[in-house]
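TA notes, week 10

Several of you asked for a full example with nothing omitted. So below is the full record: structure tokens for the whole chain, then the designed sequence directly under it. When grading your own attempts, check the secondary structure regions first.
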């Protein structure tokens, strides 16, 4: 059977036209067939997934409907704790680590009735944008196996784009949900900082980490966000802010919205095929909203805060077991070793100031629109042939997404075109704090006005 959107499958499941067992089995069969080439999963949870699917099927038959995720197969980035199932962060250091408890977001998706099919490969400890540094091997882009899937949630994006799961939960510290979503041609949503609990998620940077969904459609992103969003009193980064009805937001007109386009910085040095695709997308946006106007933003680019917090988390393990890290990951972690306490405090103060001042831009516009990445997915061969080019390439890929982590704003990437080599191009839409509903509204309106999201991977031709 075809793996379509959660929105479509949920309706058919509720009407009992298909079963959770059928959908889960189809996903597991696709994983068995295509994962050896993609390397999108580190751990496949076939037995427990089938048990969860049978339970969901029984509950639905009894009329115990839990909502649109009930019986839907999803995957988890493998730095999200799962009780009794190894959670590795793609590192030799954690290759046999089996947590005692589920992360809070895992508890929430289980409560919503989702079926967890496995744990996705990633860039080791989420410290990179290519997913080419992993103890478990490289992740390959399902649109072109010779290219990177992006990162650090590369396996999650590859799994969703290839139809190995209906959705995945990833993390985003500098763009690690949106960037791979753009490169693989799916939807990636980073909620507002504090909207989704990060308790039970191995951190990269406590001040910048966000957790969110990767999906086939914007409507599916809204469905998953509805299940995982909300206050977690046990998580110090969680905020007690009311949650909107995200599905209802999709039914509202985008005509009242004012879109801001920050050309300075975000539109500089764009690839020759990315630039026209984004300009065409902006022409469509103009037909959907009340106004499109250019805006200027002060863009934060300092990375010392992330470096210092990553070092703080890893320092003890580096002292004991440095050889357990991939060399490139170790080099990046050690970059934070010499950030002083004074510098860290200053960077934290800068962060809070940036998060306050960015709100002023939303007096004049409701959303911001940029390219997600300045370039399409690079080839794995060119990056492997010149290892010194890897980090600069990743930083370029993450250039447009990183500022929204500093600002803590909700932001989504949606497909907005393809290059001549059939590589996806992503459009990024961001909004004010806690207004995921606005971001989803415009993203959905754009998606429905175009056909890019319908262009699925044809893995049989790879």
């Amino acid at each position: 059977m075809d793996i379509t959107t959660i929105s479509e499958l949920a309706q058919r499941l509720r009407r009992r036209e298909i079963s959770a067992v059928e959908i889960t089995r189809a996903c597991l069969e696709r994983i068995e067939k295509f994962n050896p080439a993609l390397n999108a999963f580190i751990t496949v949870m076939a037995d427990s997934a089938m048990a969860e699917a049978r339970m969901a099927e029984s509950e639905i038959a009894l009329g115990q409907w839990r909502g649109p995720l009930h019986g839907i197969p999803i995957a988890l980035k493998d730095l999200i704790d799962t009780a009794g199932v190894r959670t590795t962060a793609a590192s030799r250091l954690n290759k046999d680590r089996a947590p005692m408890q589920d992360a809070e977001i895992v508890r929430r998706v289980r409560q919503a009735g989702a079926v967890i099919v496995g744990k996705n490969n990633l860039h080791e400890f989420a410290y990179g944008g290519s997913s080419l540094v992993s103890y478990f091997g490289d992740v390959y882009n399902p649109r072109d196996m010779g290219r990177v899937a992006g990162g650090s949630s590369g396996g999650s994006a590859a799994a969703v784009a290839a139809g190995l799961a209906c959705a995945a939960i990833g993390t985003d510290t500098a763009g690690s949900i949106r960037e791979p979503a753009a490169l693989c041609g799916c939807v990636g949503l980073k909620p507002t900082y504090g909207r989704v609990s990060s308790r039970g998620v191995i951190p990269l940077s406590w001040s910048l980490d966000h957790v969110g969904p990767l999906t086939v459609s914007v409507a599916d992103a809204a469905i998953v966000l509805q299940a995982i969003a909300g206050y977690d009193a046990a998580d110090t980064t969680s905020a007690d802010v009311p949650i909107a009805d995200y599905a209802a937001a999709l039914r509202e007109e985008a005509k009242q919205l004012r879109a801001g386009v920050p050309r300075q910085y975000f539109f500089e040095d764009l690839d020759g095929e990315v630039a026209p695709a984004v300009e065409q997308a902006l022409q469509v946006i103009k037909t959907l909203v009340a106004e499109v106007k250019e805006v200027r933003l002060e863009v934060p680019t300092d990375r010392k805060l992330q470096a210092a917090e990553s070092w703080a988390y890893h320092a003890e393990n580096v002292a004991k077991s440095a050889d357990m890290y991939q060399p490139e990951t170790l080099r990046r972690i050690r970059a934070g070793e010499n950030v002083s306490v004074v510098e860290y405090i200053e960077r934290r103060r800068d962060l809070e100031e940036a998060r306050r001042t960015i709100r002023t831009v939303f007096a004049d516009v409701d959303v911001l629109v940029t390219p997600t990445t300045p370039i399409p997915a690079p080839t794995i061969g060119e990056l492997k042939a010149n290892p010194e080019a890897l980090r600069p390439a990743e930083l370029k890929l993450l250039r447009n997404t990183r500022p929204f982590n500093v600002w803590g704003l909700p932001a989504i990437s949606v497909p907005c075109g393809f290059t001549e080599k059939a590589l996806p191009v992503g459009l990024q839409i961001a909004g004010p704090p806690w207004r995921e509903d606005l971001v989803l509204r415009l993203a959905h309106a754009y998606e429905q006005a175009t056909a890019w999201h319908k262009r699925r991977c044809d893995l049989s031709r790879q």
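Residues 20-38 form the longest helix (19 residues). Use that as a sanity check on your answer.
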